[in-house]
Design a protein that fits this description.
Strand content of chain A: 15-25%
Mean pLDDT of chain B: 81
Structural class of chain A: alpha+beta
Strand order of the largest sheet of chain A: 3-4-5-6
CATH architecture of chain B: 3-Layer(aba) Sandwich
Distance between the termini of chain A: 104 Å
Structural class of chain B: alpha/beta
Order of helices and strands of chain A: HEEHEEHHEEH
CATH topology of chain B: Aminopeptidase
Number of strands of chain A: 6
Largest sheet of chain A: 4 strands, mixed
Helix content of chain B: 40-55%
Helix content of chain A: 25-40%
Order of helices and strands of chain B: HHHEEEHEHEHEHEEH
Largest interface: A-B, 35 and 35 residues
Radius of gyration of chain A: 29 Å
Number of helices of chain B: 8
Number of helices of chain A: 5
Oligomer: heterodimer
Strand content of chain B: 15-25%
Number of strands of chain B: 8
Radius of gyration of chain B: 22 Å
Strand order of the largest sheet of chain B: 4-1-5-8-6-7
Number of domains of chain B: 1
């Protein structure tokens, strides 16, 4: 013989289960309706950190050993160093994309920092035009993963120089570091010890010597 | 000893003046000897990388081995044509960039050819295979007129104009051999310190159908023949100019 209190407890639990099941069913139906109506309140657009501006990327093409200007609209920060890093990050994102004309793995994360340093004259004063030296600090992982070859390394170096000059005209010279240290070559060929003249990169990167 | 006894006599002064003028005389002699030295047409072949520096990977082959094999083949062809050849390495040895430039400069080279090889990375992921390609590079240093005293790291700036002309001859020869040729300027350690017309040639051999290594023997023979023809033509142009 089942005691009376157990019968009552079973009835209460059964009723609670049915109520909970109906409640869950209703919530599921409402959620489905919200989804169909597009009324989802979850954020679907990334917060805008800066206004989009036109940026000119000097994109390397290994087919003819050239640099081609490509104008893109990018959200660029006000700070010149952050702006330089954003532009170069986009350039390297293009190289990391599948079927790139100059394939290089790494993407935007390859640029650790970009420092802009005023170029001083012999007397220690800055130049009247406010010319700047850009010091591009690449990550060691990028250098280690860069394809080895005279053409591919040269194109990477020159396209970075030309892109900096196209978007920050005050940048007239460029130097490279890897993980904050000077390095002889990028991946066994292109000289990283030299100070590059940014304006010349656009000319020398062409198909003619 | 009195002070007057330590004073240098006329003979000593003359000797001292003679010693002091030696560097000037030596420099003058070098300039005067240049036409004579140029008669001896020396080509320096620089097989890039070597030893611990393997260079790029060409499928299953390493760049250092590819360039050495090409260097040996080209040396044979040039010597058969009566051209003196100096190589920067004859084995799998580590030779740094400064040593390569030293060899070229001490040889009083008429031409220095730096040999490189790499797979075209734009093609390596593609199923479309085209023929072999050659990338010819000249130093991106600006040309200077005064070539008497140049810093070691920019010694090539005195020869850049002739290097560009040499690259044109190489371009014609390699194009004639059916290769796709691109021309460019680069900053390359070693080349920038050479005081003779210097060109870096990067061979991008045709890849095999499975995307593996290059068909090296045929490409090497083709490239070596083309480069030898170009150097013979360059020698003719150089000696023709001086006559």
């Amino acid at each position: 013989m089942i005691p009376r209190y157990q019968t009552i407890l079973f009835g209460v639990l059964l009723a609670a289960s049915v109520v909970m099941g109906v409640s869950l069913w209703n919530q599921l139906r409402r959620a489905h309706e919200r989804l169909l109506e597009g009324g989802d309140s979850a954020p679907t657009q990334a917060p805008e950190v800066a206004a989009a501006e036109q940026a000119t990327l000097m994109v390397a093409n290994e087919a003819d050993n050239s640099l081609e200007p490509r104008v893109l609209s990018l959200p660029l920060p006000e700070n010149p160093e952050a702006r330089a890093r954003a532009v170069l990050g986009k350039l390297l994102d293009l190289y990391a994309a599948p079927d790139a004309a100059h394939p290089v793995p790494g993407g935007a994360s390859a640029i650790a920092q970009v420092f802009l340093v005023p170029i001083a004259e012999a007397n220690g004063k800055t130049t009247p035009s406010g010319a700047e030296l850009a010091v591009v600090n690449l990550t060691g992982a990028f250098a280690a993963g860069h394809p080895s070859g005279l053409e591919t390394e040269t194109l990477t170096i020159l396209s970075i120089c030309a892109t900096l000059n196209a978007n920050l005209p005050r940048v007239t010279k460029v130097r490279y570091l890897v993980d904050g240290e000077p390095r002889a070559t990028l991946a066994g060929h292109a000289d990283l010890t030299r100070t590059y003249i940014a304006a010349e990169a656009q000319v020398t990167g062409g198909a003619q010597p | 000893m009195r002070w007057s006894e330590r004073m240098p006599g006329p003979l000593q002064i003359a000797l001292l003046a003679g010693f002091m003028s030696l560097p000037v005389l030596a420099q003058g002699q070098t300039v005067q000897e240049q036409p004579g030295a140029a008669q001896r047409f020396v080509v320096v072949i620089d097989a890039a990388h070597g030893g611990e520096d393997a260079g790029a990977r060409l499928g299953s082959e390493l760049e250092k081995n590819y360039t050495l094999a090409l260097s040996v083949r080209l040396r044979s062809l040039l010597m058969a044509r009566g051209i003196a050849v100096v190589t920067t390495r004859e084995s799998d040895a580590t030779v740094d960039a400064d040593r390569r430039a030293e060899i070229a400069n001490h040889a009083n080279a008429a031409v220095c050819l730096s040999l490189h090889a790499a797979l075209d990375s734009a093609k390596s992921g593609s199923s479309v295979k085209s023929g072999s390609a050659a990338h010819i590079f000249v130093s991106s240093l600006p040309a200077v007129d005064d070539t008497r005293f140049l810093p070691w790291n920019t010694a090539q700036s005195g020869s850049v104009t002739r290097s560009v002309a040499l690259a044109g001859v190489m371009n014609s020869a390699l194009s004639h051999a059916g290769m796709t040729v691109t021309l460019g300027r680069t900053a390359l350690l070693g080349i920038d310190s050479m005081n003779c017309p210097a060109v870096a040639v990067e061979i991008a051999p045709e890849q095999t159908a499975n995307g593996g290594g290059p068909d090296d023997s045929q490409t090497q023979a083709q490239v070596a023949e083309a480069l030898a023809a170009a150097l013979v033509e360059w020698r003719a142009e150089e000696t023709g100019e001086r006559r």
